[in-house]
Amino acid sequence: MRIMIYSSIKLLAEKISELLKSMTKDVRVFCVDSISPALIRSQEIEFLICDLHSMDAFSDLRLRQLARLDIPVVFLVEEGSGENPPYPGFQVLKQPVKTNDLTRLIRAVHNEKKLQKVVRATTFQRQLLDSIPDMVLVIDDNYNVVRLNRALLIHLGLERSEISKRAYRENLGRKCYDLLFGRSQSCEHYGDSCPINQIKHGAEM
């Protein structure tokens, strides 16, 4: 993980840097006394810690630029000072900095990164399936709908203007026989063949 610490107080930045390095080997820390979104992007920073007192000279525009960065931003504030981060969404780390607080933040950053990867992968998969003009339905061996595409939603009666992320979510996890035919049990119960059961019994489709 690449972490940047912005503070005009060198000793403070160095102390936090030592704490971070003692917690995990998988970290590279950059201590700086000036900062910009361009610098953060050029160093591929994943996590930013800012000393709130060092932010006094920052313009409102610069703060808004930091707020739009696609990385977690944490502000250092004095214990009991009552100071709050300048914009909603920023987290606060109290001084003196405690190892437990840093551990909690690092864990939160790791979890957020994992979530973002899942979201990006899911979005790509949906876009890929939607690019196929034929109907696509992916089902697990318990008849649960795992993936479906836009062509199938249109076949089910949705207008293109009605298709949204919610339309996909509402149909994931449904039984295929319910989604396609409005049935309460598998198709074999109604005397029809079921490709899922045929595959289970060794048939090649």
Overview of the structural elements:
The protein has 205 residues and is an alpha/beta fold. Helices cover 41% and strands 16% of the residues. The strands form two sheets. A five-stranded parallel sheet has the order 2-1-3-4-5, covered by helices on one side. Strands 6-7 form a two-stranded antiparallel ribbon. The longest helix is centred in the middle third of the chain and has 32 residues. The mean pLDDT is 78.
Show the helix and strand layout:
Layout: E1 2-6, H1 10-23, E2 28-32, H2 37-42, E3 47-51, H3 60-67, E4 73-78, E5 91-95, H4 99-130, E6 137-139, E7 145-148, H5 150-155, H6 165-171, H7 176-181, H8 195-200
Parallel strand pairs: 1-2, 1-3, 3-4, 4-5
Antiparallel strand pairs: 6-7
Major β-sheet profile? 5 strands, parallel
Count of DSSP helices?
8
Low-confidence sequence ranges: none
Classify the beta-strand content into a percent band. 15-25%
Give the radius of gyration.
25 Å
SSE order, one letter for each helix or strand: EHEHEHEEHEEHHHH
Q: What's the short story on this structure?
A:
With 205 residues, this protein is an alpha/beta fold.
Observed structural traits:
205 residues, alpha/beta, 5-stranded parallel beta sheet, two-stranded antiparallel sheet, 8 helices, 7 strands, 41% helix
